[in-house]
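ok new one. same drill as before - structure tokens go in, u give me an amino acid for every spot. 64 of them this time. try not to just spam alanines like last time pls lmao
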């Protein structure tokens, strides 16, 4: 659970911005989406390898 303590005299917009930053950093929504269904470890590893290969190909294209 995220707790944002609003200090005396602090703008609510600034506190909201801190909340959004913390929410994004702990990746709440990403974890919820991942846990909606089970993914086998072999499938997860294959996706990571495919993603790494794709990113590497993009970087190789930039160098050309």
């Amino acid at each position: 659970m995220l707790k944002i303590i609003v200090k005396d005299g602090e703008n609510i917009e600034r506190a909201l911005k801190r909340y959004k930053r913390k929410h994004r950093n702990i990746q709440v929504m990403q974890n919820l989406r991942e846990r909606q269904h089970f993914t086998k470890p072999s499938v997860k590893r294959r996706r990571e390898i495919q993603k790494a290969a794709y990113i590497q190909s993009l970087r190789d294209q930039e160098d050309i």
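The mean pLDDT is 91. and btw Residues 41-63 form the longest helix (23 residues).
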